Amino acid sequence: MSYHANFHKKITAHPDVRAVVPVIDAHLHFVDFVQESDGIHGLLKAMDAGGVIKAVVFGLPVKKKWESFEKKPPHYYLDDNSPCYYFNQTDEILAREFEKLTPKVRRRFAPLICGFNPTDKYAVRDVERMLEKYPFWRGVGEILCRHDDLTNLTKEETARVNHPALFDIYELCSARKLPVLIHQNSTSVSIHDEYEHLHELEEVLKEFPKTQFAWAHVGMSRRVFHKNYHEMIVSLFDTYPNLTVDISWIVYDDVICLNLEPKKHWLEAINRYPDRFAIGSDLCGHFELLGRTMARYNKLLERLTPQGQNMIARDNAERLWFGEPDQT
Question: What is the domain extent for residue 214?
Fold first, then answer.
């Protein structure tokens, strides 16, 4: 069974179909890897059914190529060995759908810009153009930096969080008070006794202290793990006030929980820093499992204090992504 199918199987096996409290989905792709989507109204329907009051939504900055020698069209980046390439129209797809909404409904979404090549030093100009064209963006991301198999399949230079092409974007986001969502593996798939890529993230957190960063999936990915991972996260929080993380994708089932029961040391870490975690679905373009995906956090939310529950479920994402951006 593929990794994608296995994750889908886990989600569909979860008994709950609605979050125990209203939640904000802090990590949601509006399109899939071939830039298709159920549409904004399909998303709204799934949100209402699943108790998701708001969502941080963005496209996918890469598109999977359907090679001429492949008989079956791919839909996920691991479906075959065909490469992916940077696709700047992903922001336009989201923007056109967003513009269909009434002002009241728009307030349920925090749309982010992601359709640029993070290894191109001209990328900041692409971000500036998109900010000028549409005034509603709430941040930048998900920027796909080190990402195991996806990195290997993506044409171009290897993206990394401390690539010089991203520095002007970080400065721009600091000036505009726009948070940045990044995917940056903490280590490689074969090195589990140290954090091979963590220094790249720390360099950026030090050099751009006024830029707010959200670290997608707590820096984990497939086959990326460490037995004392929670200790590293707490250490980063102790040191860098400009860092938050989202619990999304496989990290919750594979690392934080055992049979959906949160592990004691992760509960302690979350209770120590309840203002630095958010939850997300990481669904890509298709939303029928949104309620079930967010409901798998129910046992975690039920084990937090009322204040911690509100912060993890909604308040942290609300503060980071839905605050009024500086338009000057």
Answer: 3-321
**Whether 241 contacts 276, CB under 8 Å:** no
Identify which of 293, 263, 255, 257 has the alpha carbon closest to the alpha carbon of residue 50. Answer: 293
Residue 213: partners with Cβ closer than 8 Å, 6 or more residues away: 179, 180, 181, 182, 204, 205, 242, 243, 244
Residue 237: both structure tokens together: 């929080």
Indicate whether 201 belongs to any domain: yes
Strand, helix or coil for residue 105: helix
| 301's tokens | 């939310």
| SS3 state of residue 102 | coil
Strands 243-247 and 139-144: unpaired
Q: Does a cis peptide bond (omega within 30 degrees of 0) precede residue 142? A: yes
- Any idea what the CATH number is for the domain that residue 157 is in? 3.20.20.140
Q: How many domains does the chain have?
A: 1
Alpha carbon distance 212, 244 (integer Å) = 8
Phi and psi (nearest 5°) for 25?
Answer: -80, 110
Best CA proximity match to 143, nearest among 225, 235, 58: 58
> What are the tens digits of pLDDT across the range 226-282?
778 999 999 999 999 999 999 998 889 889 998 889 999 999 999 999 999 999 999
User: What mean pLDDT value characterizes the chain?
Assistant: 93
